[in-house]
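Protocol check, entry for the methods section draft. Step 1: assemble the input record (protein sequence plus ligand SMILES). Step 2: submit for complex structure prediction. Step 3: store the structure tokens unaltered in the notebook. Ligand used here: zinc ion. Step 1 record:
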Amino acid sequence: MQIHLLPNTAAAVRLTHAAGDILIIESEKVIGVAANWQPFAITVEAGQLHAFPPRPLPQEVLTEFGASVVRAFGQAMLRGWATQPSVDLAMAKVQQLTCACCGSYHKGRQWWNRDDGYGLCNDCIDDCVTDPMDFLEAGASYGVPGYHYDIDGSHFRAKAGA
Ligand SMILES: [Zn+2]
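Step 3, stored output:
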């Protein structure tokens, strides 16, 4: 899975990328995932990429491209670009999770690389997360900070002294 920076969505559609590659088009605020049929946008802005209607993402897309959608979602969050409601839904609801580190209950969102029902509480972040940006790596352990764990951002705000 590679990340490609492209000048516009026209080029993203024209060029061939491996299925699952992530396409970032800064000029149009579009992030897409290359697919066998046509690249699809996970951002609200789609340009010339395929845009999913605002309903749940097709299950076959999640099955085949789930890891790519997660990484593309992280890239959109980094840039503050709105993602499609169907993608937001696919990225899981806030729920009560058990901390994988200390066993306490907390609110978070399920990360694909954690056992179902497990997450990370705020008290354990410093012990468990060495690099909050590691969600960009395939196989990252805890997901996107401020989204999957530390969902109100209080932990990292406190660390930043804000
Ligand atoms: Zn904990």
